[in-house]
Amino acid sequence: MRSIAILQHDPLQGPGFLQDCLRAQGWDTHVIRPAFGDPMPQHSRDFAGLVVLGSDHSVHDRLGWIVAERALLRDALAHDVPVLGHCFGAQQLAMAAGARVHRNAWPNVGWSRVWVTPDGRALLGGAQTLDVFNWHYDTFELPAGARRTLYGAHCLNKGFRLGPHLGFQCHLEVTEAGVRRWCEAGRAEVQALRGPAVQTWADIQRDLGARTAALQAVARETYRQWAGSLTRPPLLRVGVGLGV
Questions:
Q1: Which CATH number fits domain 4-228: 3.40.50.880, 3.40.50.1820, 3.90.180.10, 3.40.50.720?
Q2: Cα 123 from chain centroid?
Q3: Could you tell me the mean pLDDT of each successive run of 10 residues in the chain, 244 residues long?
Q4: How far apart are CA 174 and CA 177, in angstroms?
């Protein structure tokens, strides 16, 4: 039975709400932590889909697992195995597809308003604007053939669609508890940052329950659609034979 591989690179950046959504749709998920020694899969077709999460590393860091992960994503692109990338994961997907990843003009840390393009509205539940959670310094150019789905005032390319593959330069997967843990661990980093797209430590956590609930309402539809593009194993039934 093929599962969905979730590539996690940082203890603070887990699958969160995304994993809940996939399990609710009857999918088995297999979390792989290549940055902590888990072997990188060799063949994307061993899985129904690949999810690539965030990282405190840059895609340009010369680490073996980063290079191997991009090779896996190139294999997925070649064989139409759907990929869903968040932040670092979206940068890895863009780079695997031949696009440039570079420093953004400003750090994006905290909550920000983004605009949904016509190409993204069906994917994002019809929303025209959305408040998303960010924690990134780099950004990507759009791969050839990709369509922009989200854009922001301080980062143009916040999301793209490339066939069955989705990349988001933000974190749709966060939970309230996850953001609080992230803020606590990154408090000194946030306090040292300056810029028009950087919130204070207190502002990031203000109205956090309402903010994450609103984001999850949109993310649920996005994840439903992405999972719907996967080839489901013929014997898989919702609520039967699930595990991690």
A1: 3.40.50.880
A2: 14
A3: 92 98 97 98 97 98 98 98 99 99 98 98 97 98 99 98 99 98 97 97 98 98 97 47 32
A4: 8
